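User:
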Amino acid sequence: MAPEKILVFAGTYEGHALAEYFDQRDWNLRADFCVATEYGTEVFSDIKGISIIEGRLNQAAMEKLLLSGTYGLVIDATHPYADLVTENIRAACKTACVEYVRLLRRESFFDYPGVVAVDSAKEAAAYLVGTEGKILLTTGSKELSKYGELADRVVARVLPSVESLRLCEETGIPVKHIICMQGPFTKEMNLATMKQYGCKWLVTKNTGKPGGFDDKVKLCEDGYQVVVIGRPQAETGLSLSEVIERVEAFYGK
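Assistant: Predicted structure:
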């Protein structure tokens, strides 16, 4: 008998949207959701009956999970910048001969004179070393160490988790410059934060509209400078509606 369950590697926005879809159809028992952290589990706390697998999995652990024969379809709904995780999921699916589907968040188009486009956090930090003014960093906590030389200028807006605070402390960011909040945020909220902390620069990733990118880059309209870190690699994948169509086909609906 063919495996009847779906395994979803979930980020926050896309993973939660899929979980809501399963919940509306009472399909929670037919899908498992993998999240990396306790915070990831909390994101799904409003959805009852969902099965969560918590913890960071390397490729070998993913392969072991898939080789159990439980799953017939894997949906990669991880963050668009989690390129190593996506690479591991793809490789594990290939080894286990399980169908792989990438749920890809679309990038946003932007064309503002105040935008500086770079390829990585390292490049963003190198560029900002030659500038003046405080920096609102909105790219998460994982690559904070790249900005160590700029720690006294950085205001870090990170997820409200113990790990985020630890990484801020290790980077040397002053406590008064740490903002623990979950987005996405409106342009008005971003503008208020820039004004309150006296920031001139904002650093972001192109996380698309669901990630609040559009409301960050619009700060250029108010005279602020925005540094945009490009996605790590060009990807192909399906939209949320296309993935839902594939799920319904998998379940024969």
